[in-house]
């Protein structure tokens, strides 16, 4: 039986790394952390923490990355290849035909929470930076190509009821739910990208999904347009979430 290759599409400042931890805690799964990040930075020149180190550490040729996503053999005993993918890493010149060889899923988070989390690390943020438009583009492409609605989950649903939401997700991608997805050992992982020291402090301290806490902080006024555009996209995708 061929391996199941899951591409989980998310913008930044979601619970995407915690979700990667959940999948990595399964004995049948190997994970890959943001495989196109080095290409994205090398191509755009956008200033991110650890930029030069990231480019030096990872593959910058998107075609080689895509080939690995779709055809690289898995380690012995592994049958699931879970890919934590960032939607904004899919630049316009990247041929998305490779998506046909993976199972595409989508992870959402309320735009205000994304923006307020993002600006703690990079104070200036655009709609491009947080990946909502790219997420909608990929969702529409996958839906049109397959004729089916791909699996969509929302971070709040995961945090409020991880067992139920992850069971729905596992059912949608055709694998059995594993109780070990609900808790994991704390600390860093060899599978984490070299950028973990800038972004992953919270998840490194975690041993499971934290309870959902509503964040009432207002988005700064100068980002109102970004929030409005992201909210419209989020509403379109949210209607398709599992459950």
What do these coordinates show?
There is one protein chain. The protein is α/β, with parallel strands linked by helices and 243 residues long. It has a single domain (4-238), classed as Rossmann fold. Helix content is 42%, strand content 12%. It has helices spanning 16-24, 37-44, 51-57, 62-71, 111-118, 127-130, 132-146, 155-160, 162-173, 196-199, 201-204, 224-238; strands at residues 4-10, 29-33, 80-86, 103-108, 152-154. A five-stranded parallel β-sheet has the order 2-3-1-4-5, sandwiched between helices. The protein is globular and about 50 Å long. The model has no long low-confidence stretch (mean pLDDT 95).
Please name the defining characteristics of this protein.
single chain, 5 strands, five-stranded parallel sheet, alpha/beta, 243 residues
Quick overview:
This protein is an alpha/beta fold and 243 residues long. Helices cover 42% and strands 12% of the residues.
- CATH classification, class level: Alpha Beta
SSE pattern? EHEHHHEEHHHEHHHHH
**Total DSSP helices:** 12
**Strands, count:** 5
Shape: globular
The portion of residues forming beta strands comes to 5-15%
Total number of distinct structural domains: 1
Name the poorly predicted regions. Answer: none
Furnish the topology, listing elements before pairings.
Blueprint: E1 4-10, H1 16-24, E2 29-33, H2 37-44, H3 51-57, H4 62-71, E3 80-86, E4 103-108, H5 111-118, H6 127-130, H7 132-146, E5 152-154, H8 155-160, H9 162-173, H10 196-199, H11 201-204, H12 224-238
Parallel strand pairs: 1-3, 1-4, 2-3, 4-5
